[in-house]
């Protein structure tokens, strides 16, 4: 089971050495590739070797590069690793509109329920009750735009009446960074199970190569919201994204979340959600889709 998330924020040379990632900075540090899930390269002065890139693809390791604002902007994904890629691609291409709408209904319902959990956690029990009632009313394809109604209630209650997602502030900077990390993990799982990330359920932009990842990130966003909310309450949220804050956000991939009445790391839960998508499509039963439930923030204990 992969579990390490690595942030490279200083100049370094990354190379391959006997199935290990070798990080050369002040000293040489080897890390087994089989332990790594995600590498985030933030420094502009990092050199990577071609053999390492090939090995990352073979081991299913996601590599993220960052832009001038130190936000992830590019992703290196493995190519055609799944043993039945054509089977999965056919299932995906031949999804009917009713299938897509029913799957999206379940995704939106669970997203809103996770938002309700976080409002209850933050002491807004009335708002939590309203969101849970709204989740019960989500129609196939979310015809009534319950997702947007929930967001309009959720974010101001969680981060203050004046808060909007369009503002440039520390909260949104952390949310955007955390969402990009989780999105990369969803894209990684989709590719590993043979899905084409560009073909989405609800997201359909011709300019977006990760429409399906943007569908399935929705019920997982709230773990990022939880970390940022806790930091705001503890008055430990810096005005700018610090390396320490980024490490905490990347570390979310190892935090616990509930799926199918069991506790998993976020990475493992995403993996099982995408596995269940294959089952739901094969059996033509959207109820077989397994989606996450929130838990208090804690690093998952590996047995």
Automatic annotation (TrEMBL):
Extract the GO molecular function terms from the UniProt entry.
Answer: DNA binding; DNA endonuclease activity; hydrolase activity; metal ion binding
Q: Which Gene3D superfamilies does its entry note?
A: CRISPR-associated endonuclease Cas1, C-terminal domain
The UniProt record gives the binding positions of Mn(2+) as 147, 203, 218
Enzyme class, spelled out? hydrolase
Q: What is the E.C. number?
A: 3.1.-.-
What does the record give as cofactor? Answer: Mg(2+); Mn(2+)
Alphabetically sorted, this entry's keywords are: Antiviral defense, DNA-binding, Endonuclease, Hydrolase, Magnesium, Manganese, Metal-binding, Nuclease
Q: Name one GO biological process term.
A: maintenance of CRISPR repeat elements
Q: Please name the InterPro entries in this protein's record.
A: Cas1, CRISPR-assoc_Cas1, CRISPR-assoc_Cas1_C, CRISPR-assoc_Cas1_NMENI
Q: Describe its function.
A: CRISPR (clustered regularly interspaced short palindromic repeat), is an adaptive immune system that provides protection against mobile genetic elements (viruses, transposable elements and conjugative plasmids). CRISPR clusters contain spacers, sequences complementary to antecedent mobile elements, and target invading nucleic acids. CRISPR clusters are transcribed and processed into CRISPR RNA (crRNA). Acts as a dsDNA endonuclease. Involved in the integration of spacer DNA into the CRISPR cassette.
Quote the subunit structure annotation: Homodimer, forms a heterotetramer with a Cas2 homodimer.
Family classification: Belongs to the CRISPR-associated endonuclease Cas1 family.
For this protein, the record's HAMAP family field holds: Cas1
What protein is this chain from?
CRISPR-associated endonuclease Cas1
């Amino acid at each position: 089971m992969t579990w390490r998330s690595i942030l490279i924020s200083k100049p370094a040379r990354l190379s391959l050495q006997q199935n290990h990632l070798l990080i050369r900075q002040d000293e040489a540090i080897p890390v087994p590739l089989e332990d790594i899930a995600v590498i985030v390269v933030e420094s502009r002065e990092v050199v990577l070797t071609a053999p390492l890139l090939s090995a990352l693809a073979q081991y299913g390791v996601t590599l993220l590069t960052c832009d001038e604002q130190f936000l992830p902007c590019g992703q290196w994904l493995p190519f055609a690793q799944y043993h039945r890629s054509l089977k999965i691609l056919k299932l995906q291409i031949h999804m009917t509109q009713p299938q897509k709408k029913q799957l999206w209904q379940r995704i939106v319902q669970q997203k809103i329920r996770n938002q309700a959990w976080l409002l209850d956690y933050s002491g807004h029990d009335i708002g939590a009750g309203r969101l849970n009632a709204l989740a019960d009313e989500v129609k196939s394809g979310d015809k009534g735009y319950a997702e947007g109604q929930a967001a309009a209630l959720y974010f101001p209650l969680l981060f203050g009446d004046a808060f909007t997602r369009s503002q440039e502030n520390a909260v949104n900077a952390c949310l955007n960074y955390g969402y990009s990390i989780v999105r990369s993990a969803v894209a990684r799982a989709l590719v590993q199970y043979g899905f084409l990330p560009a073909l989405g359920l609800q997201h359909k932009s011709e300019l977006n190569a990760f429409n399906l990842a943007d569908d399935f990130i929705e019920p997982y966003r709230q773990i990022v919201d939880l970390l940022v909310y806790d930091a705001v309450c503890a008055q430990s949220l810096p005005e700018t994204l610090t390396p320490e804050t980024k490490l905490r956000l990347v570390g979310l991939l190892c935090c616990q979340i509930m799926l199918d009445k069991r506790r998993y790391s976020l990475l493992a839960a995403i993996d099982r959600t995408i596995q269940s998508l294959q089952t739901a499509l094969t059996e033509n039963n959207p109820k077989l889709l397994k989606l996450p439930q929130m838990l208090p923030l804690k690093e998952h204990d590996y047995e």
